[in-house]
Structures are given as structure tokens and as C-alpha cells.
Design a protein that fits this description.
The protein is of the alpha/beta class and 118 residues long. 35% of the residues lie in helices and 18% in strands. The protein is globular and about 45 Å long.
């Protein structure tokens, strides 16, 4: 990312150009391109990507960054870490945002709850 100290003099324009180039290559290969973080770039990049991937935004409060996707009727896939007890509240929050969500076990055991199943 342009804001990270990489030792290279990268700008915001460099980051945006690279993301657009990458999406173009993905589309040229016949695949869909999804955008996840840094969420600060979403407002510029959403038209280039087919869907958003929000990770932990309900607990982290960055979900508003994906509003351009939902306004454009593009899918936002959402993964939140939690358990069976937390899932209903997390799923309701994601549903209110128009996201397709699942709640994944914080221990990354492979267990998850698809919000569509609740």
C-alpha cells in the first residue's frame, strides 16, 4: 500500500493504478475481481471491481466504506469472526447493511455460520 513504509516512493495514484491494472488482468482471464481493504481506497476503486469483500467491519466499524458497492447493487461478501452466540447479532448487522455474510470461528477451525441459514 502507498501509505506503508516499503522503502519505495509510492503514491496514492500508484496504488490506484496498480489495483485497476490488477482488476483488468483478472477480468481478462475471465474471472470476477473482488476488492477488500484498504477500505480508504474503496470510494475510488469500486467501479472497477465486481464485488466487495468486507472482513471484520461490523466489529471494526468500517462497513460504511462498502456503501458504493451496495448502492450500485454489487455484492458485498462479509466475514466476521464470532461464535454461535454472537452470530445472530452479527448477521442482523450485516443484513441491515445489505451484505451477504458468514460468521467464522475465531480459532479458524473451519467452522462457520452462513447468515442465510439463520
Amino acid at each position: 500500500m502507498h501509505a506503508a513504509d516499503t522503502g519505495f516512493d509510492l503514491t496514492l495514484t500508484d496504488a490506484l493504478d496498480y489495483a485497476r491494472w490488477l482488476a483488468e488482468r483478472i477480468h481478462a482471464a475471465g474471472m470476477s475481481a473482488g476488492l477488500t481493504g484498504p477500505t480508504a481506497l474503496t470510494s475510488e476503486l469500486w467501479p472497477t471491481f465486481d464485488f466487495g469483500l468486507a472482513i471484520g467491519c461490523v466489529n471494526g466499524s468500517q462497513c460504511a466504506e462498502y456503501a458504493p458497492f451496495t448502492r450500485a447493487k454489487k455484492t458485498v461478501l462479509h466475514v466476521e469472526l464470532g461464535d454461535e452466540l454472537a452470530a445472530p447479532a452479527l448477521c442482523n448487522a450485516a443484513k441491515a447493511l445489505g451484505f451477504d455474510a458468514l460468521v467464522s470461528d475465531p480459532g479458524f477451525t473451519g467452522r462457520c455460520i452462513a447468515c442465510s441459514d439463520l
